[in-house]
Amino acid sequence: MARVLPAVAASIPAAAEVFRTGGIVIFPTETVYGIGADLHNSEGVRRLFAVKLRAINQPLLVHCCNMRQLAELVTDVPVFARRLMHRFWPGPLSLVFKKHPSVPTLVTAGRDTVGIRMVAHDFTCAVIGQLNSPIAGTSANYSGRPATACFCRLDPDIVNQVDLAIDAGECGTGFPSTVLDVSVDPPVLIREGAVSLSELAPYLGSRTVRQNQARPAEP
Fold this sequence. Notes:
Elements lengths: L2 E4 L5 H9 L4 E3 L6 E5 L3 H11 L8 E4 L2 H5 L7 H10 L4 E6 L6 H4 L4 E6 L3 H10 L3 E5 L16 H4 L4 E4 L10 E4 L6 E4 L5 H4 L9 E2 L8
Parallel strand pairs: 1-8, 2-8, 4-6, 5-9, 10-11
Antiparallel strand pairs: 2-3, 3-7, 4-7, 5-6, 9-10
């Protein structure tokens, strides 16, 4: 059984240390509960794929807490993407950029792009800040099963396999983040979630967002 700690300030150092030492953590976000590992710890990331039962060709999202971390993850931020970030970050909008070479290909499933989200949940943002490294993550559920914003509804089998679970009660909206690929112009909507396409439109100028034809991204 994983150690469970409340989402309070006193738990921040413990959560950061678990990430730092290659552990897996269930953490709250403003959307649903996530499960993650230190971005640069390959052992932790591989274990994350295994615990989640996630195919290795499905990229993970990178969760950051400030613009300095973003600058270390990407090679280019288009002007229209900056407008979106100014309006929706931190928050439930994940943006896909051309990745910096330092981002592990394991996390991006070998792609030259990386999906990034600046988390709005105060606890998790503080943990990432103390860790001083982004985390690679996904929703805290088995692939193909529903995600949840309620700690009591997490699958016990998932919880039992992680090193630490942070209990924030009902943490978010229950809707996954919206994922928009801004590495191309016009951008491609990979998944519509907590931020609707109509909410994005005013910040895209005259661009018409293309719809992703592939399998929708998991939370």
